[in-house]
Amino acid sequence: MSTSRNYRTPIRHHHWPEDQAMAAHRVKTLLKSHDATLVAHYYTDESIQRLAEETGGCVSDSLDMARFGHNHKARTLVVAGVRFMGETAKILNPEKRVLIPDLEATCSLDEGCPVDQFTKFCNAHPDRTVVVYANTSAAVKARADWVVTSSIAVKVIQHLKDRGEKILWAPDKHLGRYIQDITGADMLLWNSACIIHESFKATALAALKKQKPEAAVLVHPESPAEVIALADVVGSTTRLIQAARDLPNTSFIVATDNGIFYKMKQVAPDKTFFEAPTAGHGATCESCAHCPWMAMNSLDKIAHVLETGDNEIHIDEGIRVQALQATQRMLDFADRARQQLIAHTA
Ligand code: 13P
Description:
By secondary structure, the protein is α/β, with parallel strands linked by helices.
């Protein structure tokens, strides 16, 4: 293990790069004066993750983003990620003001699951428990029995399978198939995918693995089955960061958004990270693994929304209350799972 540092521990950097120092200072001041905290995903720009760390905000996976915002006392949450993450924060915290840096920052999974078509699908299968990935609109969550994120999905589906329930799963077909393989649950899958994870190529990854036999392969389960089959570790962004820190390997090939390298390098500074290929031999770009919507977040936009109150998330109250049931069910389940783990390891 190259470091014993906890990956959640804020790191003190000495200097901000000159071109970011003013914006960082401006955001820090605005967060304080507006009683706001910054909740960022691991896929956002390094400067945003760093600022969240330095201001006592949070940098995490989708589940912990939801949890953190819910437990924090700040009146305003600035959610730097994509729109569904801001909506999840609002679903859980109607009394708080939730701002996102860019309202256009969407997600291909969310876009691939329009609520009218999804409702028809659900209505055609009334005997199934409806489980949706967090990467969906509030309206889709409102039609669901459960919301899950990648870090809790397998446990929830296993739990439902053990209760004899049949599942309707949406929208990520790759994650759905992965969970189905692990749990053996009866799952009917919606047909959608993340444009980033879907672009990882198994043949090119196998070739890279041959070139770097010492590297462990870390894969997010939104990736295609053939890519998952080559993995040493499959899991949520948090799980992959833990693996980068804890595995004895000194190098890693990583199949997820490359925003995650900021945290991986922080927790394992002596290790080497390679992007899994998204293109085959001869392509001009070997990897383009960065979500174009996550990339829409910036320090300047964070400052702008704090100054103006623009880009506030609003959700119809009827939809919010419905969506809350399925979302809260996930948080309660995750809390129970955590308590059991603590009791088990105590
Ligand atoms: P995590 O919950 O694993 O961070 O995944 C979020 C996501 O949107 C992956 O594309």
